[in-house]
Every structure is written in C-alpha cells, then in structure tokens.
Amino acid sequence: MKNRNINFGFIILAMICLLFMFAEIINHRFWLSDFEVYYKAADRILHSQNLYGISADGHYAFKYSPTSAIYFIPFIIFPFAIAKYVYWLFLTSIIVTGFYLCIKILKPSLFTNQNVKSINIIILLATLILAIHFLRELHLGQVNYLLLFLYIVALYFYKEQKRTVFSLILAVSIFIKPFTLIFIPYLVIKKKYAELLIFACFSLVLFLLPFLFYGSIETTLNQYQLWFNELRIELSHKQGLLENANHTIFSVFARYTPVRFLLINSTISFIYQIVMLIVIGISFLWFTQINSKNSNIEQRQYFSIIEFSLLVSFIPLLAFTSENAFIFSQILVFIILLHYKSLKNYEKGLSIVAFIFIGGNFRELIGSALSKKIDDISLISFGTIILIYLLYVLRIRNLLKDNKQKSIANLNE
Question: What is the pLDDT of residue 411?
C-alpha cells in the first residue's frame, strides 16, 4: 500500500501526459513538428545525406549538430506515424523520471523515511507549476526536456561520485545544444580536472561519430561547418536588448531600469552585457563560498548539487531563447518547494508569485491577447529571478540541506 501511495503523484503526472496525448489526437493536433525534424535528420545521416540548408524543409530546418541526428536513429525503426507515439511515451517516461530524480537528489530522506504525503504534495505542486512547459514540449516534440533530463541524470551521478558516467552524459548533452558549456568554468573552479579530461575525450569521440556514416573526414567536417553556419544565422536573428519577449536577464534589467537610456549603440550594448556577465559570475562565485568554510564533506557535496542546479536555471536567462527553455527552472522549483517551510511568510508569498509567473501563462485559459502581453513583459524571467533570490536567501541562512541526511556512503548503499 505504501509503495502504491508513494507512486500516486507520479501516476497523476504520467496520466496528465497521456491524457494530453489523447486530447491532441482528438483535436487533430498530434503533430510533434520538431520531432519530425529530428526524425528526418536521423534518416538522412543514416543514408549519408546532407543535413543542412535543405529548401524543402522550409521553416522546420535541422539546426543541431550532426552527432545529435545519430541520437534519433532508433526512432526511424518505426514509420513516422508510429514514431510520434513512441517519442511521446519516451518524453513522458523521462518527465516522470526527472521529477523522481529531483527529489532523490535534493531530499532523499523523503524516500528513506517513507514520507508518502510530502512526496505526493511536492510532485503535484511541481506538476501544476511546470505543466505548461512539459506539455508544450510534448506538443511540439522538442528536446529541451531531454536536455534537462540529461543534466538531472548527470547531477545524480555527480552526487554519486561516478565521474565517468557524469562526464559522458555532459558530453552527450553538448551535441544537442551547447548550453553545457556553462558547466565548464564551474568544474574548473571545483578542480574537477579528471572529469574535464574524461568529458573532453568523450566529446572528441562523439564529434567524430558522424564519420561512421559519411565515411569521410572532409564530408564530416563540412557538415559541422554547415551546422556552425546555422548557429551563426540563428544568432543573427536574435532580438535586440530592448525588444519585447527577450527573456534574458540582460534584456529584463535594461528594459526595466534607466540602463535602457544608455544603450545607444551596439558597442555600448556589448560592453553592458559583458559587465552584467561579470557581475553574475562574481555573484555565483560568492554563492559558492557562503557557509562553505565551516561545512563538512557531506554539506559541501550537497552545496555542489545546489550550485550545479543554479547554473541550470541560469541557462534561459543568459542565452536568448523562447519561453520553452524555462523548463530548465524545474530543479530550482523543486529546491524551493522542498525548503518552502524554511522561508519567512513574505518569502513564501514571493515564491507563490514566482511559481505563477513561471507556470501561469496558459494561453488556452487566459486568452491569446493576455498571454502575449505576459510573454512580452517577460514575467517568466521575473519568476525565475525571484526563485534564484530565494535560493540565495536559503544559502545565506544555511537552510539548504536534506534533513536527517545520511552520509554519502550510506546513501550509496
């Protein structure tokens, strides 16, 4: 009975994903447009064909690395009409597993102590907050949650001190989107040189993997060159700092402070972003030092998990992207939910506001006009920034811990 109860929240989460699939089918919206792009790319690389600049693809062009196309080869075993169902079920499984691992990593004592009620409440609240993001991920068949899941799994093996698996997963992830680069300076600071070396070796192997399909280094390198060109074109299309719906912290700070009046040309805008990046970097370094000197090995290990999670939540604030990438705030959402009782009353109110900002923009419920307005003013960015602020507060008060933690050795048993 206890096991059934523990799984209740996860079952609800899985059922929401599956019911949404049936709703999509009934409403003739079962498209998975982005997955179709990956599916075609997998078929093309399997047949040694070019992946980029294909006019017939139109808007749905492949913009990821040649290596990432290989990841989707297992799906082309099925006709596309069937593969869509397989990918939907695959995403559903990693969404549920991702939620489970967030608790397992951040507060394993909930499972150790059979705290059934708390687990179910946390899962259901997180589902409510993050539903808009993972449902959109399912609808489009995107890779943002897949990428987040890789980060979560990497974090799990980082905690378990399995450096080889940790480094391999990071290497796999960097060929989907280069967001993984944000972790490199952190690993250098932490003097994780062995992990960095293993990561570099795995990355080199994965970089050369398309050679097995093209049979020529020249052709393989040409495909990478075309990919880099796609990235350059994509970056050239990014919005200006002062435009609506630019959710980066650079844009949000500029749009809502007098800084907007200083950004009179591209040079000043560039310098401004560099200065902001330096300030963020210094604040992160300071975060890593808070209460670290007097902490034991177990506490430092837990702090590293929190720091890694913070970097993940920074990704959509630093790299211009759509609101879809704010699914990366998931680990941060779990941290705040798991430490909610440690917050003061006004901070609890702030967290609720942040959760609404992050997960409340349901166009189907509030209407397209209001939804667009919310997107234009980047409320989702403010929600993430508030949660980051609360994370700093918890770290300063030394409240970031798994109550009744066992030693790392005991947890691994």
Answer: 31
Residue-by-residue DSSP string for 138-171: HHHT-SHHHHHHHHHHHHHHHHTT-HHHHHHHHH
DSSP class of 65: -
Q: How far apart are CA 186 and CA 206, in angstroms?
A: 22
Q: Residues 40-64: what's their mean pLDDT?
A: 94
Q: Which two tokens stand for residue 385?
A: 């920034």
How far apart CA 345 and CA 265 sit, in angstroms, is 44
Rounded Cα–Cα distance for residues 207 and 209 (Å): 6
Q: What is the mean pLDDT of residues 158-172?
A: 97
- Segment 255-271 shows an average pLDDT of 95
C-alpha span between 170 and 196 (Å, rounded): 10
Yes or no: say if 33 and 9 are a contact pair by the CB < 8 Å rule: no
- Neighbour-count burial of 274, counting CB atoms closer than 10 A to its CB (0-12 exposed, 13-18 middle, 19+ buried): exposed
Local confidence band at 235 (pLDDT 50, 70, 90 cut-offs): confident
Are the CB atoms for 152 and 100 separated by under 8 Å? no
Q: State how far the Cα of 264 lies from the Cα of 138, in Å rounded to an integer.
A: 41
More confident residue, 138 or 235: 138
Q: Is 357 left (phi over 0), alpha (psi -120 to 50) or beta?
A: alpha
Query: Residue ranges of the alpha helices (H) in 181-339?
Result: 183-189, 193-208, 211-214, 217-236, 249-255, 266-289, 297-318, 330-338
Q: How far apart are CA 191 and CA 185, in angstroms?
A: 10
Token pair for residue 10?
């996860």
Side chain identity at 201, as an amino acid letter? Answer: C
As a whole number, the mean pLDDT across the chain is 93
